[in-house]
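Field log, afternoon session.

UNIT: design team B
ACTIVITY: writing a sequence onto a fixed backbone
BACKBONE:
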């Protein structure tokens, strides 16, 4: 059950604290004024039944808690303590007075992230920066307008139709690129994954041993020998290939035998003797054993949907090809930058080619701003024939060299535009660097797949909020400066007269 709260914040002077009045220029006070609480309230209320159950915590507390956690780089427990200690944070969360003690248990942070999935966070990000970035609010676009735009797009793709779109109406520039948000896992190796799987299975056998006749040894192999073999490999900097394959073969046999032992016990007593968490881990280990056995027989390191973490089996290796980072393990995120604000275009744990997302990103730009961009600044991966044909159809300039053999003679204007595009495209690379160094995008601590996506989306939302706060501060400074010079000029005229 959820009871909607009054989204209107109380006056700053009315917030009661034992420390005196709060400062109006505090960053949390400013962010409270810029955050669209009504929109967040509507999105949060959809998670509950309106007339049944215990009333849940307010949307402002739920959203504010996960926002503060990502903004300040705090763990869930530290976030609860930080909220209890800081009156400005409690004002940001919508409280009317300072409260001693914890507002909620740290375990509620997981539920808050589930109630604000990545899709909702991205919508809040768009809605929040709509005024400064020129983005239309979702309510402004009716179903009739959407149908008309779809018809125009379908008509424009007809090769027999000419002059459907006027390129002079294009405005602005769209920056596109993709990055990886690594998860908090150790670097996976075949031997370490098999050893962890073997130890997990041994714990399950110990838990179920009282249900067996207890004859003989618990496992059909020596646990000490298996552990010593694993240590003999990982303690070497570069073990011989033959020795590594021999130990992987032995670990595969141990894992296979343990799976057989547990399966026999479950056949006799049923699946209910194991917890849901244990059953899920057992299924993951079975799939890991199948993948590792296939790679061992084929003598390669490639398999579809490869598992790189038993704790987070949804994570996949993302091919990057960067210097020192051939692979990263986490979620791949395709983003766009418009007027300094970063928005997520596509987010997935599976690897995908970001070049095929260009047309969707441009159409989203059209829906948000009401017109197509003048230019799309992206790397060479986006310059395929389909994208070039699409950009030519709508009169959009796609940055980068032309396909085919390089031209012998290039005009100075073309070179100047290419240098300018490269310089402007650096902004999106800088956004990634800032997000990973200052906003913890370089290590996503979320355990569940949905909470991990929410954390990554919140990083970009926090970064955009800071950009907007800086823009607001610059606007106020320029306004004060203009008023000062006008007053000074008027005084100077009177003085000279």
């Amino acid at each position: 059950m959820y009871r909607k709260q009054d989204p209107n914040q109380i006056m700053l002077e009315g917030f009661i604290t034992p420390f005196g009045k709060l400062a109006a220029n505090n960053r949390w006070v400013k962010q409270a004024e810029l955050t669209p609480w009504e929109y967040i309230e509507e999105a949060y209320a959809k998670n509950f039944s309106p007339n049944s159950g215990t009333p849940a915590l307010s949307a402002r507390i739920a959203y504010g808690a996960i926002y503060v956690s990502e903004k300040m780089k705090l763990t869930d427990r530290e976030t609860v303590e930080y909220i209890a200690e800081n009156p400005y944070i409690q004002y940001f969360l919508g409280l009317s007075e300072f409260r001693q003690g914890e507002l909620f248990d740290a375990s509620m942070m997981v539920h808050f992230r589930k109630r604000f999935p990545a899709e909702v966070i991205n919508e809040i990000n768009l809605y929040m920066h709509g005024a400064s970035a020129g983005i239309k609010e979702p309510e402004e676009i009716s179903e009739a307008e959407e149908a008309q735009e779809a018809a125009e797009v379908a008509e424009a793709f007809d090769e027999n139709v000419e002059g459907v779109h006027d390129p002079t109406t294009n405005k602005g520039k769209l920056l596109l690129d993709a990055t990886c948000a690594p998860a908090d896992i150790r670097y996976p190796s075949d031997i370490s994954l098999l050893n962890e799987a073997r130890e997990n299975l041994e714990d399950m056998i110990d838990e179920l041993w009282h249900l067996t006749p207890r004859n003989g040894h618990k496992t059909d192999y020596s646990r000490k020998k298996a552990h010593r073999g694993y240590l003999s490999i990982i303690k070497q900097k570069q073990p011989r290939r033959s020795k590594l394959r021999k130990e992987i073969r032995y670990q595969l046999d141990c894992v296979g035998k343990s799976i057989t032992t547990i399966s026999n016990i479950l056949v006799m007593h049923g699946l209910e003797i194991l917890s849901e968490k244990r059953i899920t881990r057992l299924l993951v280990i079975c799939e890991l054993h199948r993948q590792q056995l296939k790679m061992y027989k084929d003598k390669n390191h490639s398999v579809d949907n490869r598992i790189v973490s038993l704790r987070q089996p949804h994570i996949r290796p993302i091919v990057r090809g960067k210097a020192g980072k051939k692979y990263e393990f986490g979620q791949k995120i395709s983003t766009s930058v418009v007027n300094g604000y970063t928005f997520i275009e596509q987010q997935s744990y599976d690897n995908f080619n970001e070049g095929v997302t260009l047309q969707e990103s441009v159409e989203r730009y059209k829906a948000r701003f009401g017109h197509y961009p003048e230019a799309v600044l992206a790397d060479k991966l986006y310059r395929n024939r389909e994208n070039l044909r699409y950009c030519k159809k709508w009169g959009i300039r796609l940055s980068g060299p032309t396909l085919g053999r390089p031209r012998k003679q290039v005009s100075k204007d073309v070179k100047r535009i290419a240098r300018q595009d490269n310089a402007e495209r650096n902004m999106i690379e800088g956004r990634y660097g800032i997000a990973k160094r200052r906003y913890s995008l370089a290590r996503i601590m979320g355990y569940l797949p949905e909470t991990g996506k929410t954390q990554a989306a919140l990083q970009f939302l926090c970064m955009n909020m800071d950009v907007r706060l800086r823009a607001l501060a610059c606007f106020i400074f320029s306004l004060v400066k203009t008023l000062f010079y006008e007053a000074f000029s008027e005084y100077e005229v009177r003085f000279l007269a």
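LOG NOTE: The chain has 17 helices and six strands.
NEXT ACTIVITY: expression trials, pending approval
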